Amino acid sequence: MQSSLHGMIDKAHRYAEQPERVQVARLEAVVRGDNSDHTVTLTEGRLSCDCDHYQHERLCAHVLTVERLLKAFIPANAAPFPGS
What we know:
Low-confidence stretches: none
Mean pLDDT: 90
Shape: elongated
Oligomer: single chain
Strand content: 15-25%
Helix content: 25-40%
Strand order of the largest sheet: 1-2-3
Number of domains: 1
Distance between the termini: 53 Å
């Protein structure tokens, strides 16, 4: 049992050194804004936010924050292009 656990931990370390092995499919993150908290979700490869700015512009600082923090783990172009 002990050697099996060590093998599993070693494999996890190897995988973690190769972030391209991991792609987040679904995500919900809370970003603490200056005025209130906002929920950013990743669904079907796209980030979205519950803030007013996102509802009007289809982009916001909260989405860009999550994209920047998790860019190695989420699909490329997960943040929508403004106006699209």
